[in-house]
TrEMBL record:
PANTHER family: PROTEIN SPINSTER, SPINSTER. The chain crosses the membrane at residues 32-55, 67-89, 159-180, 186-208, 242-267, 287-309, 321-345, 351-373, 385-406, 426-445. It comes from Phenylobacterium koreense. This is MFS family permease. SUPFAM superfamilies: MFS general substrate transporter (SSF103473). It is a multi-pass membrane protein. Its main location: membrane. CDD domains: MFS_spinster_like (cd17328). InterPro entries: MFS, MFS_dom, MFS_spinster-like, MFS_trans_sf. Keywords: Membrane, Transmembrane, Transmembrane helix, Transport. Residues 33-450 form the Major facilitator superfamily (MFS) profile domain.
Length: 455
């Protein structure tokens, strides 16, 4: 892809422009915009995550294998989500970002509703592809907007706040999906999940403001500077920190996304009797209880974790920029033994509470990693850099994680002969070991981050 730049501007010089860190709107409007973007990202992840609690009912209804669940919830979605993220980000470097986001919300919400009408595996995969196409237009423009809305010194906290949409959306997806599926079936759960998108699309179209014109009043560099995709990629090629944090975060996502479709299945297969007993105490069925328990416990812990990650990173980075990678690196290391213990204990209740501990450190990487992605390049490269970062994270994490864990579960169950219960347990335990690789990559970024941050 090639583009003509309006004027040749050195990236480091452009990064120093006053508008790069100016706050273009009032504090009250910025707060509103941040909460609206958070709400949009919650709906984004709700529509993406609801399939996880519905995996077992869908499998039984449509007679699917675990690898098909992994393909449906991971690779089919991720290929289009990641690939289209880059051209949409290129558009976001020049066009109205709120319009792009609003259109994306309308698209993915519509395909989520359509997922409820799927009659076979192929139809469901096509609907999930449609969700991926729509969601590709959300986060790269949103990251770029947030970097323009808030001062540089609050960037990690602001992006961590936005990233709280991941655990909050997951919480709502699990709770709502499980309860609706128990009451009305898994098809209606998709319909309910997709419905709120209409409101958020309208709010994005009519109330989100594009800050470029305001920022251009402070600096002509905003209007004069553009970079082609090739120039941005070449610039990033010299940034060792970017590739280390991208691969480290991708492995974290590989583990998280890989576990998500099979966590409820693990409890239903390994602790089925205990889960049924716990559910009956709340006058619920097993799937509804698991959605409620995993959503509230894991989602709350993940939300706290995402928020803390940004706060801690911004605080320590004031004196040492290495804090941006030290925090997620240490969290990655600690998560490995905690998760292995959670899926090894004989009690479902104990496993749920240990997973809460895992959740409290599992999302610490969001704010720091995304802040590095927005700070390691000049302002006119931010949306494209966010898309490249998300391309790497989601292609490896979302695309391969669920599929790999599903294949591993089938191998352990059928080839090794452990059966479906122990097969999924060992698949979860073995895959979490990749957290050691994530730790090594993130820790290695400490050597270069101080020299490579520019904006």
């Amino acid at each position: 892809m090639t583009e003509t730049t309006a004027q040749s501007v050195d990236p480091a010089t452009a990064a120093a422009a006053p508008a790069a860190s100016a706050q273009p709107f009032s504090a009250s409007y910025t707060r509103y915009a941040m909460f609206l973007l958070l709400g949009i990202y919650i709906v984004n992840f709700l529509d993406r995550a609801v399939v996880n609690i519905l995996a077992e009912p869908i499998k039984n209804d449509l007679h699917l294998a675990d690898w098909q669940l992994g393909l449906m919830s991971g690779l089919a979605f991720a290929i289009f989500y990641t690939v289209l993220g880059i051209p949409i980000a290129r558009m976001a470097e020049r066009k109205n970002r709120p319009i792009i986001i609003g259109t994306a919300v309308a698209a993915w919400s519509g395909f989520t509703v359509l997922s409820g009408s799927a009659q076979n595996f192929i139809q469901l995969v096509l609907c999930r592809i449609g969700v991926g196409v729509g969601e590709a237009g959300c986060t790269p423009p949103a990251h770029s907007l947030i970097a323009d809305y808030v001062p540089k010194e609050k960037r990690a906290s602001a992006l961590a706040f936005y990233s709280m949409g991941t655990p909050l959306g997951g919480l709502l997806g699990l709770v709502m999906g499980g309860l609706v599926a128990d009451a009305f079936g898994w098809r209606w759960a998709f319909v309910v999940a997709g419905a709120p998108g209409v409101l958020f699309a309208l709010l994005a179209w009519f109330t989100l403001k594009e800050p470029r014109k305001v920022m251009a009043q402070h600096s002509a560099a905003i209007q004069a500077t553009q970079a082609s995709f090739g120039e941005t990629l070449k610039y990033l090629g010299k940034k060792k920190t970017f590739w280390l944090i991208a691969l480290g975060a991708a492995i974290k996502a590989f583990i998280g996304y890989g576990h998500a479709p099979f966590t409820a299945s693990f409890f239903l297969r390994v602790h089925g009797d205990e889960v049924a007993s716990l559910a009956s105490a709340f006058d619920l069925k097993s799937v509804g209880f698991l959605g409620l328990a995993l959503g509230l416990m894991g989602g709350t812990a993940g939300t706290i974790s995402a928020w803390l990650g940004g706060q801690i990173a911004d605080r320590y980075a004031k004196t040492d920029l290495r804090g941006y990678v030290s925090v997620p690196a240490i969290a990655s290391l600690l998560a490995v033994p905690i998760y292995v213990i959670a899926v090894s204990v004989p009690s479902a209740t104990a496993a749920l509470w240990i997973l809460v501990i895992n959740g409290l450190i599992g999302s610490l990487w969001y704010g720091p990693v995304y802040a590095i992605g927005q700070s390691i390049v000049p302002p006119h490269m931010r949306a494209t850099t966010a898309a490249i970062l998300l391309f790497i994270i989601n292609l490896i994490g979302l695309g391969l994680g669920p599929l790999a864990v599903g294949i591993l579960s089938d191998i352990m169950s059928n080839v090794v002969g452990l059966g479906p219960a122990q097969g999924v347990r060992w698949a979860l335990m073995l895959s979490t070991g990749f957290g050691l690789v994530a730790f090594a990559l993130l820790w290695a970024a400490r050597r270069t981050i101080r020299e490579e941050m520019v904006s």
